[in-house]
Specification:
Elements (H helix, E strand, L loop, with lengths): L13 H21 L4 H12 L6 H12 L3 H13 L3 E4 L2 E4 L1 H22 L4 H26 L1
Helix pairs in contact: 1-5, 2-3, 2-4, 3-4
Length: 151
């Protein structure tokens, strides 16, 4: 008699989410370190680069805080670091990315693209869609809980 073992997929939970996040972030931070930039600096620079127009510092702080839930003072310090590195430049009351900032993000993207392809490659589209729906719902609920805790 032939039997097949039942394979039980792991249940998605906070631990599994955290492990996946920190594994992927570890890969990214390794690349960022080679380029002399931190994770928070990269998030802030990406927010500036992806904006349609130069942003006021407080607008960038709001965007980064929405992503990282970091302290606004720490984010302002990160913007100052990006200005000191000449990855951002003040343009009146606004900040805009420099060519060096754009080139840095492009270089990081080029370096991480093959790794990202290996990590995400081969995962069925329906699994990615299901994971996307679950992660969006978890983020929405967690943001609501955080808002309730901080108001």
């Amino acid at each position: 008699m032939t039997t097949t073992a039942s394979i039980t997929a792991p249940v998605a939970d906070a631990r599994a989410l955290g492990l996946a996040h920190y594994a992927a972030r570890g890969v990214l931070e390794h690349v960022l370190a080679r380029h002399g930039i931190t994770f928070q600096q990269q998030i802030a620079l990406r927010a500036a680069v992806s904006a349609d127009a130069p942003q006021a510092p407080d607008d960038l702080v709001t965007q980064v805080r929405g992503s990282l839930k970091a302290d606004p003072a720490d984010i302002h310090a990160t913007l100052d670091e990006l200005l000191a590195k000449r990855l951002l430049v003040a343009d009146g009351a606004y900040l805009r990315p420099t060519d060096a900032g754009r080139e840095l993000l492009a270089a990081i993207g080029a370096e991480t693209a093959p790794v990202t392809a290996r990590i995400w490659g081969g995962i069925p589209a329906e699994d990615l869609a299901a994971a996307g729906r679950v992660l969006s719902l978890v983020a929405e609920r967690a943001n609501a809980e955080l808002a309730a805790l901080t108001t």
